[in-house]
């Protein structure tokens, strides 16, 4: 026997004792919810299950969980949507307020708090459409409410309200697909909008074909971060791209700085993640051998955001601590002095023969990898696409397989010598 649980108002209920029946449940129910901030997900799930059961409604007929956009970052709402394996969709207060004449339980208290006279009932009706019926009025628990609306037809959850906006700040590695993590690839495939510096987006090739690209110039980092946040605030799935690792001289910190400094509600509700990538530091070290196998640090020589005296203090500390040092942004067309200063400071703590690795365009067309000494280093050896990796006083270079290799001992030599 085939039982089609239809939307005509009489056969969308739970089927008792289905036995061998093949039951089709069109998703015609919108489950509207509201809750206090920080409500335990189990309370909302229990309320929804109880409400459906008391009304004799099948959970399989639920098309979506709905609420006010102020609740789009509420864990309980998303946990409920996951429980029923449906989408969570959200409406703004203006959209819900327009439905006040259709509410069974309009509330002045709710209006005063959030700008509309109902959340659970109104969001369920909004998802159900203009001819939907409120078949279960607002039900409540200690900290949550829910209501159920029935649509005249199947509800396409993807076309009602908005999802919670998602922003992933993605490190794509130095450029080659081989050094892009599976997680980064997955996130980029799932995103609808890709934001980044044009060169970095070009490195992704066909991976982002068909997606909306938003690109800007190298120096417009804040513009890119704001664009990504604003797109996500519209309910879109966005990837903000950095080369290397997004948390190492990338855009991750700028995103969180903007969130913290401006405290905009529409940004604060976003689902934000940071996806790590292989850094230029790691890539250079792997290409040449093992120069960062002991303690190391990274210092940017660009004074666009960091004062020169602060950069020099950090270089002095690195020299005093005998750290292997990765120098990012070593020179530019207008900035030629910092690398000379860095060389001078680092020479106070290590010999002129210290190996220096010059890694340019790693993982991209035109890749070069050279080894010189700290005494030989000049600004002519580098540009903004070069990572300069300076060894410490123990770092050694050697020949292997016809090529130069560089490594920094960790102290195993003493352990090996101590063996009988």
Written description of the protein model:
The protein has 420 residues and is of the alpha/beta class. It is 30% helix and 25% strand. The protein is built from 14 helices and 20 strands. The protein has a 5-stranded mixed sheet with strand order 5-4-3-7-6, sandwiched between helices. It has a 5-stranded parallel sheet with strand order 10-9-11-8-12, with helices on both faces. It is elongated and about 80 Å long. About 1% of the residues have low confidence.
SSE diagram, text form:
Elements: E1 2-4, E2 22-24, E3 29-35, H1 41-54, E4 62-68, H2 75-84, E5 87-91, H3 93-97, H4 108-114, H5 120-128, E6 133-140, E7 144-150, E8 166-171, H6 182-190, E9 193-197, H7 198-203, E10 212-216, H8 221-233, E11 237-242, H9 252-262, H10 265-268, E12 271-275, H11 280-288, E13 289-290, E14 296-300, H12 308-320, E15 324-328, H13 338-346, E16 355-360, E17 368-373, E18 386-390, E19 396-400, E20 403-407, H14 412-418
Parallel strand pairs: 1-2, 3-4, 4-5, 8-11, 8-12, 9-10, 9-11, 13-20, 14-15
Antiparallel strand pairs: 3-7, 6-7, 15-18, 16-17, 16-18, 19-20
Helix pairs in contact: 1-2, 12-13
Q: Using only CA atoms, what is the Rg?
A: 29 Å
Shape, per Cα inertia axes: elongated
The helix tally amounts to 14
Number of beta-strand segments: 20
Residue-averaged pLDDT: 93
Major sheet strand order: 5-4-3-7-6
Please outline the major beta sheet: 5 strands, mixed
Cα-to-Cα separation, first versus last residue = 82 Å
Q: Strand percentage, roughly?
A: 25-35%
Poorly predicted regions are 7-11
Q: What structural category arises from helix and sheet content? A: alpha/beta
